[in-house]
Amino acid sequence: MTAPNRWRTVALIARREFLVQVRAKSFLISTGVVLAALVAGIAGIAAFGGGDDGARRSTVAVLRDETLTPWLTSSGAAVGIEVSVAVVPDVAAARGAVEDGTVEAALIPGADRGVVFTESGLDDELRAVLVAALAGRAQERALLDRDVDPALLRAAAAVQLVEEATDPPDPAAGERAVLSMSVAFVLYLQILLFGVYVAMGVVEEKSSRVVEVLLATVRPLQLLWGKIIGLGVAGLLQLTLYGVAAVGTALATGVLTLTGTALGTLAGALGWFVLGFLFFAVLYAAAGSLVSRQEDVNSTTTPLTVLIVAMFGTASVAVRDPDGTLSAILSWVPPFSAILMPLRIAAGVATPAQIAGTVLLMVAVTAGLSLLAARVYERSVLRTGATVSWRQALRG
């Protein structure tokens, strides 16, 4: 069989595997449910959690003295409290506003002191705001009594402080952390899920003897790569739908503001899914070919599943410090690269050289493992009955 014919056969098998997968009700329902949950969840975050800028708000009633309003608002702003002032006509109204919860405190200013009504006492921040406001107004009045313009004094005492940080914090660190962990989690699920699909598909064909019919006309490696490519494209399509829906909704609702980073992270996640899936798919296919019954699949695929879980566990630790020693070293070690490098890309700490180097290393290791897995697959896919060990399959 010529090379073009061999690839045409692989393409036909891949097309069949892809169509069977994407037409399955379970695939369509699960994809629709996840997409709806993603859009609804992100929209809910935007609606109920995205509008709070973190500033505390407090309303203070003041007895017949509007001159305190600018002092209260400026003193509040200095400590991060947004103060609203309500001027009340008498003490009874001040007490009533506190009792019915309309205001947090009611201030009765005097010449040299102020009385405050509260329901259960002032906290330190609001007390500091009230004291600063009373002191500022008293100081201004004292200056005016001595014919000193407070505005001129403030202008003369104004000092500008210019701050230059040697290691300024990343204002988008929170968004990058969420992106990093989201990418790691989704890649973990997709690689695990479609790896299992490959193994189960191999076992299903083997147990039903369909593989014997197929291998009468195609070679084992053609069947192996057709299955891997078909299911891989289905997984990539599903991941793309998830990513586009999530990133699009997050950017549209303002939950994410890092447009370039978000799109770059999505592209990186798709690319690393392909690499991670190929790494594990050849191994899952080989593991599936060792058994003849669906219920025996776990006995040969458990080590692979444990490895994927370990990858996600490592990513969960590395997300706290994407540029740390653990992440930097393991991102060069296949298959950990498949989760850690997208995480580092999302965090903005991966250089182009690191990305290119880890991709080449991942491709090289996957190519080597594919040769080993193909050997196991060829020698065990037609064996029925007892489970074939890896050693038996490798020895032939």
What would your notes on this structure say?
With 396 residues, the protein is of the alpha/beta class. The protein has 2 domains: 11-42 and 174-395, no CATH class; 57-157, Periplasmic binding protein-like II (D-Maltodextrin-Binding Protein, domain 2, 3-Layer(aba) Sandwich). It is built from 15 helices and 4 strands. The protein has helices at 3-23, 25-48, 68-78, 91-99, 124-145, 150-157, 173-207, 210-214, 220-253, 259-289, 297-318, 325-330, 337-347, 352-380, 390-395, and strands at 56-63, 81-88, 105-109, 114-118. It has a 4-stranded mixed β-sheet with strand order 2-1-3-4, sandwiched between helices. Helix 1 packs across helix 9, helix 7 (173-207) runs parallel beside helix 10 and helix 7 packs antiparallel against helix 11. The model has no long low-confidence stretch (mean pLDDT 86).
Shape: elongated
How far is the first residue's CA from the last residue's CA?
Answer: 24 Å
- What is Rg? 33 Å
Number of helices: 15
The overall average pLDDT, rounded, is 86
Number of domains: 2
Give the H and E element order. HHEHEHEEHHHHHHHHHHH
Stretches where pLDDT falls below 50 for ≥5 residues?
Answer: none
**For this entry, what is the oligomeric state of its chains?**
single chain
Query: Got a strand count?
Result: 4
Structural class: alpha/beta
| Beta strand % | 5-15%
- Looking across the biggest beta sheet, what order are the strands in? 2-1-3-4
Sheet of most strands: 4 strands, mixed
Q: In percent, how helical is the residue content?
A: 55-70%
